[in-house]
Design goal:
Length: 377
Amino acid sequence: MTVDLVWRSLPLSTKELSLSRVLRCGQAFRWNNVNSVWSFSTKDRIILLKQDDQNLHYAYILAESSKDRNGPESTLLFIADYFNLDVKLADLYEQWSQVEKKCRPGSKTTSFAGFPGIRMLRQDPWETVVLFICSSNNNVKRISKMCHSLCHEYGTFINEHDGVNYYAFPQPELLAKPEVEDRLRELGFGYRAKYIQRTASMFMDNENYPHITLDSLWELRSKTSEEAHEYLIELCGVGPKVADCISLMCLDNHDVVPVDTHVLQIAVRDYKFKGPKTMNKIAYNQVKQHLRDLFGEYAGWAQLVMFAADLSDLNNGINQVDGQAIKHEVADMKVEVKQESYVGKVEQVVKVEQVERVSGKRKIKTDMVVKKIKTEA
DNA sequence: TTTCGACCTCTTAA
DNA sequence: ATTAAGAGGTCGA
């Protein structure tokens, strides 16, 4: 089946939004990039995005079950909400640069100037809870892989585009069954399999956890960050760090700074933090407060940029570090095809591995394309 | 009440 | 090629 793809445009500079940074900097893990087009599935459609210097271009493909009669408008509303477009990023960057200049008077370049267009997303709360349960003791690459296999295994089929099948993110009722844990372990979730199944079942268990529901989770958006924190750490697999990530990335608590050992080091090295240098509850809260006081109402956003500036992955495909162009040369390309059987279906996975030289250094960029070739009863 | 080891798997660096 | 450390932690003893 072919779908007519209609692209629409929205004036938006790359300084306000850099898709390739925002979608790869460790806050969202479910976007695909196929032929320079970013794609993502919501509960009722596939969203497609690309951009040039001055415009964001968007298109959508509805699920066959969708009855939406005003697709262009609802897609634009989703985009405006998801990317927090009411927040003017350039102003914040300016403000943060001043803070950095004050703390590091000697440094020539700020981390903010070198990494423009990184803004906080406003993601779906349930999805964000699961994403960040997966994030513990883990890396961006593996988290992305886990998210995709979770949707593929349990999510409702939305539609197909360019040979790729898209699935919605599975709701709690689909993940609450006890047998989910074993299956997730098979899929490589490790000890997080138990956390996800248990947390999902908490949302389904009205007897023991009447206060934990999808409605009450969404209502946290209108409550304080302290209330959100208290609620979230009750969930299985959610500690203080993960709770703060969730709070920041989907519950509108823009000033919350999730702290890890890495952030502690940055706070000590660059931002004059004087306090405990090993991580514990006291240190956690002190660092969090210190950075919040320093960077203000959008401290969590500032921290995302600092984290992104340190992510080596993020430099792939973005041709700038300290104002110097990075050379990309395709050195080699490998295509691997393998069959995978799941319950009731056989699928072909095509793995394309592109080996590049980035400024002389060998890097492997992997794009996963899943193609369904056959379905059996 | 705080500290510390175990925990799954995968990627990266040596 | 092979190995070891580390990954934006959490849990329970």
